[in-house]
Specification:
With about 110 residues, this protein is mainly β. It has no helices and 11 strands. Helix content is about 0%, strand content about 50%. Strands 2, 4, 5, 6, 9, 10 and 11 form a 7-stranded mixed beta sheet that branches. A hairpin with a 6-residue loop joins strand 4 and strand 5.
């Protein structure tokens, strides 16, 4: 089982940008796919973005055009670049990866507020 550690969350103003990082405990070439999910209080956890080792990406409709998922294999890290954030983006963001089981990070809080 891989360990996933998120960082980069915090408070950001509407329209601002934030980059979340997820560091994996082993080579990401053994983790496929990887992605970012989020969960707001009282809501279901939902997919934000998803990426395969082949580079195929999937985004929630709410994230398209604003968020970008990417991988740095040398750093065993997956990123979520969040731009033009909105208050409705406020949630705990979780890193996801699949090895031979589903693996989740501990989550990092993103709060969008002025």
């Amino acid at each position: 089982q891989v360990q996933l550690v998120e960082s980069g969350g915090g408070l950001v103003q509407p329209g601002g940008s934030l980059r979340l990082s997820c560091a994996a405990s082993r080579s990401i070439f053994s983790i496929n796919p990887m992605g970012w999910y989020r969960q707001a209080p009282g809501k279901q956890r939902e997919l934000v973005a998803h990426i395969t080792l082949g580079g195929t990406t999937t985004y929630a409709d709410s994230a398209k055009g604003r968020f970008t998922i990417s991988i740095d294999s040398a750093k065993n890290t997956v990123y979520l670049q969040m731009s033009n954030v909105k208050p409705e983006d406020t949630a705990v963001y979780y890193c996801y990866g699949f090895t031979n089981t589903h693996c989740w990070g501990q989550g990092t809080q993103v709060t969008v507020s002025s």
